[in-house]
Amino acid sequence: MSKKLDIRIKTPQEMATLREAGKVLARIVTQIKSSLKIGMTTKDIDLMAEELISSEGVVAAFKGYRGYPSCVCVSVNEEIVHGIPGGRVINSGDIVSVDIGIIRQEFFSDMAFSVGFGDLDAGRQKLLDVTRQALIKGIAQAKSGARLGDVSHAIQAYVEAKGFSVVRDFVGHGIGRKLHEDPDIPNFGHPGTGVVLKPGMVLAIEPMVNMGTYRTKTLQDGWTVVTADRQPSAHFEHTIAVTEDGPVIFTE
Ligand code: MF3
Ligand code: CO
C-alpha cells in the first residue's frame, strides 16, 4: 500500500518568501559558525542561536515541535541528530553538528552543518569533507524532470565509495508552510525511481553520514540519536528549490 503524497508546489511568491527565509537562516548560521569555540557547552550554542534568531525577528522552528525543548539540535561525535543542548562541553578533536530551523512570515527554512575542533584526526576530517560534498552531489541532481531517487542515489553512491555509510532511519523532507512536508528524501535509493521533480518543489536535503555502521539508537531522553557502534557521524543540510534553471540553494 502506498499513501498518496501531498507535495506542495510553491507559487513564485511563495518561492520568494522561502528564499528570503533561507537567506536569514544562512546569516544566522554564519554567525553561529564564527562564534563556536572549544570549551563551550552545547547549551551555550543554543542560547547564542536563540539570540540571533530573535534579533533577526524570526521564530525558532524546532522549539515545541513534537515537544522538542530547544532552538537548535547539537549533536557531538557519536550523536547523529536531535542532540538536546545541555552541559556537554566541546573538546579538541570533536565533531559538532548543529541543526537549526526558522519560521519567517509563515514559511520554514531548515539547515545543518558539522564542524571539527582543534586536533581533528584524518578520518574525522574526511568524514566532514565527504558529508559536505555528499549534500552538494545530491543537490546537483535536483533538476526539473529528474527523479527523487536520483538525488538519494547520488548521495549514497558517493558516501559508500568513500568508505562511509548513510543513515537509513532519518531522511530529508519537503518544506514550506510546514517543517516537514512530502516527500520524504532518503539518503539512499535507486536512480530513475520515485517522485518526478518539478519547478516549485522546495526540499530539505540532509545527508547523515556515519564512519561505521549506518545503524542508529535513540537514547533515553527520547530525542538524541547515536550511532549503534558509537563511531562518529556528520550531518549537512540545505533548503533548496527545484527551478526551471536547475537547483537553487535557499540557505546560502
Ligand atoms: N532538521 C531536522 C529535521 O528536519 C530537525 C528537526 S528536529 C526537531 O527533522 F527538533 F525539530 F524535531
Ligand atoms: Co530537516
Keywords for this entry:
5-stranded antiparallel β-sheet; binds cobalt (II) ion; 252 residues; Creatine Amidinohydrolase; 26% strand; globular; single chain; alpha+beta; 15 strands; binds 2-amino-4-trifluoromethylsulfanyl-butyric acid; 4-stranded antiparallel β-sheet
Set out the fold topology:
Elements: H1 12-35, H2 42-55, E1 59-60, E2 72-76, E3 79-81, E4 95-104, E5 107-116, H3 122-140, H4 148-161, E6 165-166, E7 172-174, E8 181-185, E9 202-205, E10 208-210, E11 216-218, E12 225-227, E13 233-235, E14 238-243, E15 246-249
Antiparallel strand pairs: 1-4, 2-4, 3-12, 4-5, 6-10, 7-8, 7-9, 9-14, 10-13, 11-12, 14-15
Bound molecules: 2-amino-4-trifluoromethylsulfanyl-butyric acid and cobalt (II) ion.
Structure, described:
This protein is an alpha+beta fold and 252 residues long. It has a single domain (12-249), classed as Creatinase/methionine aminopeptidase superfamily (Creatine Amidinohydrolase). The protein is 28% helix and 26% strand. The protein contains 4 helices and 15 strands. It has helices at 12-35, 42-55, 122-140, 148-161, and strands spanning 59-60, 72-76, 79-81, 95-104, 107-116, 165-166, 172-174, 181-185, 202-205, 208-210, 216-218, 225-227, 233-235, 238-243, 246-249. It has a 5-stranded antiparallel beta sheet with strand order 8-7-9-14-15. It is globular, with a radius of gyration of 17 Å. The protein starts with 11 loop residues before the first helix and ends with a strand. It binds 2-amino-4-trifluoromethylsulfanyl-butyric acid and cobalt (II) ion. 2-amino-4-trifluoromethylsulfanyl-butyric acid is lined by residues 62, 65-66, 68, 73, 82, 99, 101, 110, 112, 173, 204, 237.
